[in-house]
UniProtKB/TrEMBL annotation:
Residues in Transglycosylase SLT domain copies: 79-366
Organism of origin: Moraxella lacunata
Segments forming domain Peptidoglycan binding-like: 387-436
Assigned keywords, A-Z: Lyase, Signal
Key word Signal present: yes
CDD domains cross-referenced by the UniProt entry: Slt35-like
Comp. bias (Low complexity): 27-39
Protein name: Membrane-bound lytic murein transglycosylase B
Transmembrane feature ranges: none
Enzyme class: lyase
Signal peptide: 1-17
A GO molecular function held by the record: peptidoglycan lytic transglycosylase activity
Biological process, per Gene Ontology: peptidoglycan catabolic process
Location of region: Disordered: 27-50
Gene: mltB_1
Length: 444
């Protein structure tokens, strides 16, 4: 996972920036109302039931300790200086000396982690490229095999938390290829290196403290702490602080271990359920729009039945309807597929705050369950902007009063919304899709 905002770290607007920045390997979960922390790249069709289930989170076992904010900007001359100070502060905070030294005694600097954390892709990835690289035929067939392999486990988690089994399995597939790629980086070294680097010291030290809690309560051993350079652990790549809050003992052995399949999948269902998953509603429905459709409705939320009354129909015969709210999203602009996004699309984004990630998970889930993927044609001739060009676009939008936010070179939701407002004011369809062609007349 990358350190981009992911369900556990970090990580929806209809006019989303379809250009997802890719940096390193898989993703990692964060606690619901907060944004997910950065993660590195590694890279369901059923009738609506009569009842809606929204599962509330279990009471966290214990609050995650946080380091004193006064150290956030402190300068350390060496990794050893930071390590010694962190050990001292952690023991002073009430943790047993032997436990702290057991966790931190062998911690060493991993310069590659610092390099990966600071890396930024020059070009973003178009949504179809992201989805197609994630939703492969192998992932689909392996996901279906996992449904057959763990029917009781998945049925139990689905019943308890209201999250479809294919969604749990899809996240498992994208996060670690069903356990084949949980990561081999020493997590203590990785997070210690990020803490020493200082840019996100508070986050990294908080995750180290959460790992210490996991060891103290008997969930894992120090030797098991290997995963993503960004902090992702186990089959579904939770970061430690989110695991402390949402980890579940899925097999009754008294431990909550993210490297145990039953615990990981049950915890994933718990995390999504606690984040507001609505039972019986897909994350998205692919639709066709009627001739003369009013594109000013993009971004507005209406019930699925209301969209149907406007002439919006399923693109593939998939049933949709009912009172669940949905918004229309054109992930590749007016010349690409049209999707109705339900609240469950945003729930997936608590796992990784990327619309392309959520689209990949939801598409893989549909395929695993035996449904169709996205049938609409993608405008593959369109080209992304470079980071420097996105900065130029953001600066231009801000100068014209469209409030794109900080000019950081990432075409996120704020930039897409600002661009859609400019499109509407200039007689264009306000789809918010940012490409070399669509910004002509504004940037060049």
């Amino acid at each position: 996972m990358t350190m981009l905002q992911h369900p556990l770290f970090r990580l929806s607007a209809v006019a989303f920036a379809t250009l997802t920045v890719i940096s390193c390997t898989s993703t990692t979960p964060t606690a619901p109302p907060t944004t997910t922390q950065p993660t590195a790249p590694t890279p369901p069709s059923e009738p609506v039931p009569s009842r809606v289930v929204i599962v509330q989170p279990q009471t966290p076992t214990a609050p995650t300790p946080t380091p004193a904010p006064s150290v956030e900007n402190r300068y350390y001359g060496s990794f050893g200086d930071w390590k010694s100070d962190f050990i001292t502060r952690t023991i002073a905070g009430g943790h047993a000396s032997h436990a702290v030294h057991g966790l931190m005694g062998s911690a060493s600097l991993n310069s590659q982690v610092i390099s990966l954390d600071g890396r930024q892709a020059e070009f973003a990835k178009m949504p179809w490229s992201y989805v197609e690289s994630a939703v492969t035929s192998g992932r689909v067939s392996n996901g279906r095999a996992k449904l057959r392999e763990y029917p009781s486990l998945l049925s139990r988690a689905e019943s308890q938390y209201g999250v479809p089994r294919e969604v749990m399995v899809a996240i498992w597939g994208i996060e670690s290829s069903y356990g084949a790629g949980t990561g081999s980086t020493d997590l203590v070294d990785a997070l210690s290196s990020l803490a020493f680097d200082g840019r996100r010291r508070s986050f990294a030290e908080g995750e180290l403290l959460a790992m210490l809690q996991m060891i103290e309560r008997g969930d894992v051993s120090r030797s098991q702490l290997r995963g993503s350079w960004a902090g992702g652990m186990g089959h579904t790549q939770f970061i430690p602080s989110t695991w402390i809050k949402y980890g579940v003992d899925g097999n009754g052995d008294g431990q909550k271990n993210p490297w145990t399949i039953s615990d990981a999948l049950t915890s994933t269902a718990h995390y999504l359920g606690a984040s507001g998953w609505v039972s019986g509603v897909d994350a998205f429905y692919e639709v066709r729009l009627p001739t003369g459709f009013n594109y000013q409705l993009l971004g507005q939320k209406q019930s699925l039945e209301s969209w149907k009354s406007l002439g919006v129909v399923s693109a593939n015969g998939e049933y949709f309807g009912g009172h669940a709210q949905a918004e229309l999203w054109l992930p590749a602009g007016v010349n690409g597929p049209a999707l109705l996004l339900t609240p469950n699309f945003d729930v997936i984004k608590v796992y990784n705050n990327s619309s392309s990630y959520a689209l990949a998970v939801a598409t893989l889930a549909k395929r695993i369950a035996g449904g169709a993927g996205i049938s609409g044609n993608w405008p593959r001739h369109e080209q992304a902007l470079s980071r420097s060009e996105v900065i130029r676009l953001q600066e231009t939008l801000n100068a014209k009063g469209y409030s794109a936010g900080k000019a950081d070179g990432v075409a996120g939701a704020n930039t897409s919304r600002a661009f859609a407002r400019w499109q509407a004011d200039n007689g264009r369809i306000p789809d918010g899709f940012i490409t070399q062609n669509s910004v002509r007349g504004l940037v060049w």
